[in-house]
Amino acid sequence: MFERAIYRRSDQQSGFHVDAGQIAEAILYYGEIELLLDHANLGQLLDAIGHDALVRLVQLPSVKATLVSDNLATGTTMQGSSRIAL
User: Fold this and answer.
1) The dihedral formed by the CA atoms of 45, 51, 56 and 57, expressed in degrees to the nearest 10
2) Secondary structure of 34-75 in the HEC alphabet?
3) In whole angstroms, what is the distance from residue 16 CA to residue 11 CA?
4) pLDDT tens column, 10-39
């Protein structure tokens, strides 16, 4: 069995399709869950379960919530004949 479940958005076009029931079920089954939240899916989760429930949820010892940047990117540029990662 896995030690925890991790919920995150799978791509930029999809929403955060995890509801309160799925989160509760994951806590019971896995014991621990981790929520990787960006601006969009944090708002959707707030709409789904409300501010007070979200605060109580992330205060549980079995739940870890991480706020991630909306605009993660990797870029390269040509510098002479070499590529430099930014």
Assistant:
1) 0
2) EEEECHHHHHHHHHHHCHHHHHHHHHCCCEEEEECCCCCCCC
3) 10
4) 555 555 566 778 888 888 888 888 888 888
